[in-house]
Amino acid sequence: MGEVLVITSGKGGVGKTTTAANLGTGFALSGKRVALIDADIGLRNLDVVMGLENRIVYDLVDVVEGNCRLKQALIRDKRYETLYLLPAAQTRDKNAVNPEQMQQLCEELSREFDYVIIDCPAGIEQGFRNAIAGATAAIIVTTPEVSAVRDADRIIGLLESEGKSDPKLIVNRIRPQMVKKGDMMDIDDIIDILAIDLLGVIPEDEYIVISTNRGEPAVTQPGSLASTAYKNIVRRLSGETVPLMSLEVRDSFFSRVKKFLRL
Amino acid sequence: MRQDVMFKGIGGNLQLLIPDQLQFTEALNQIQAKLAASATFFGKGSIIQIPMAEQRLNKEEQDQLTAVFSEYGLFWEAIEMTAKATDTEEGMAQPDDETSAAQTLIVEKTLRGGQKVVSDHSVLVIGDVNPGAEIIAGGDIVVLGTCRGIAHAGAYGNREATIKANRLLASQIRIAGVIARAPDQLNNPEYPEIARIIDGAVTIEPAE
């Protein structure tokens, strides 16, 4: 039986969809069978980020309502053989599906796949409840901002009362320069409040914008810091011990010269 | 707020005390209201003990209780005697520390944002109180951790109530009817502090 991971956050725009796409692709690149589920019904994005939006014929709601078989709705990504996407519906909303249906769907998928990764919508309402229903583990994504951390805390509380304990944390879009200057929360501040295990840290990286526009997840293009960070997270989830990337900021050449000349 | 049902922590278990004189239908309404207010606090699957339930409630009443509890994913079980479930204890505001120590609600986990704990007596939290969490206590509040949420002690008018925490970083401190806001530049205290009303205003001092 495969693992069913839900990527959630509470706050919108912190990087759940990007994380789901990159972790899914990362696992597929290492040969695992992966099913991605976009649970954001009505505001679907995972298909765009994966570059698969033109191939959607059936979606999650069609499967749940019995309009098609699960196999017909799963889109196989031709670039990575073992990666499949179950897209959300765009013309419906989150009330079209209930938690029991999601749980059944996740069970069915986990029999065929090593990893089922669910992209959870923002919020704490029906969409969230649907997305977590079938999950065996949760990954919380947050940015180093007070508002995102507040929302993440709420989500952890809700997950605990639904019996999904021991979620893991990904801190996304960190800017080491700003942290060094004291303008941005650092990892320790975040863990002080959230008190869950840290899975990984992803630095702010312009390349993410490019990869989203191209529909090619960053993990497939080595060289960017975000790509390496996501790859490391995939390795950690697969059981390897990988040290956190050094995000040490080196002073620019001129500032080092200035320091040397004591200016 | 005289004869009210009450959730109490006794010896590590959560108990529901129903005063003898209270009509069952009224008790059921109160239980519904309390569960609705604190739904996320009671983790699903928790078992709540009800003293003398077998003796005091008939089959139909027990079934109704089960129905209400299962709405929130909770269970109850009947137990025999409990410590001091008499009239004089229930429903009376307990201003002084000694007697309320026995009825302190003990919370053995970190309170996350959006979770709320309400008690007629004192509350002891063994964990943190994160921003967005609330504690409302008729008596004192003690947090063996960092308190960043809202703490309201002496909620039923007891101005002698105090709030103590290992790190008191609460966004708002309320004692009885007095509300105090954290200063804009919160200096990080390295020692436990206690908040109490002195001369009509909330004052924070180091706790021994």
How do you describe this structure in short?
The complex is a heterodimer of chains A (263) and B (208). Chain A has 263 residues and is of the alpha/beta class.
Please provide a written account of the structure.
The complex is a heterodimer of chains A (263) and B (208). Chain A is of the alpha/beta class and 263 residues long. Chain A has one domain: P-loop containing nucleotide triphosphate hydrolases (Rossmann fold), CATH 3.40.50. Chain A contains twelve helices and eight strands. An eight-stranded mixed beta sheet of chain A has the order 3-4-2-5-1-6-7-8, sandwiched between helices. The termini of chain A are far apart. By secondary structure, chain B is of the alpha/beta class. Chain B has two domains: 6-79, Transcription Regulator spoIIAA, CATH 3.30.750; 97-206, Pectate Lyase C-like (3 Solenoid), CATH 2.160.20. In chain B, 17% of the residues lie in helices and 34% in strands. Chain B contains four helices and 15 strands. In chain B, a hairpin with a 2-residue loop joins β1 (6-10) and β2 (13-17). At the A-B interface, α7 of A face loops of B.
Supply database-style keywords.
heterodimer, A: 263 residues, alpha/beta, Rossmann fold, 8 strands, B: alpha/beta, Transcription Regulator spoIIAA, six-stranded mixed beta sheet, five-stranded mixed beta sheet, 15 strands, 34% strand
What is the secondary structure topology, with strand pairs?
The complex is a heterodimer of chains A (263) and B (208).
Chain A: E1 3-8, H1 16-29, E2 34-38, H2 46-50, H3 60-65, H4 70-73, E3 75-76, E4 83-86, H5 99-112, E5 115-119, H6 126-133, E6 137-142, H7 146-161, E7 168-174, H8 176-181, H9 187-194, E8 197-203, H10 207-214, H11 225-237, H12 253-260
Parallel strand pairs in A: 1-5, 1-6, 2-4, 2-5, 6-7, 7-8
Antiparallel strand pairs in A: 3-4
Chain B: E1 6-10, E2 13-17, H1 24-37, E3 47-51, H2 53-56, H3 59-71, E4 75-79, H4 97-101, E5 105-107, E6 116-119, E7 123-125, E8 134-137, E9 141-147, E10 150-153, E11 163-168, E12 172-175, E13 178-181, E14 193-198, E15 201-206
Parallel strand pairs in B: 3-4, 5-7, 6-8, 7-9, 8-10, 9-11, 10-12
Antiparallel strand pairs in B: 1-2, 11-14, 12-13, 14-15
Helix pairs in contact in B: 1-3
